[in-house]
Write a structure and sequence with these properties.
With about 110 residues, this protein is low in regular secondary structure. The protein has no helices and no strands. It is globular, with a radius of gyration of 12 Å.
Length: about 110
Amino acid sequence: LINANLEEARLIGAYLHSAMLTGAKLDYAKLINANLAHTNLVGATLSSADLTRANLTTADLSHADLRRANLTAAITRGACLCEATLSHANLRRADMTTTDLSGATLY
């Protein structure tokens, strides 16, 4: 699924554990309760995506675009959001324990 166009996809509860989604376009996608643990999302666009309660444990979201994404109660433990854009993202109740935010844009 490298560079896949999944814009506006309904992936509620999807099991995408360890998937290769490098450069994928997931803008406006519904990923509520999705399992994205260990997934490679380097350079992916998830602008306005709904990741409520998604499991992103140790996922690689380096250089990902998460502008206006909803990450309410998402789990990003050990994930890499290095150089990611999180402007206006909803991070309420997100478990970001040990998440690497080096160089990320948070405003």
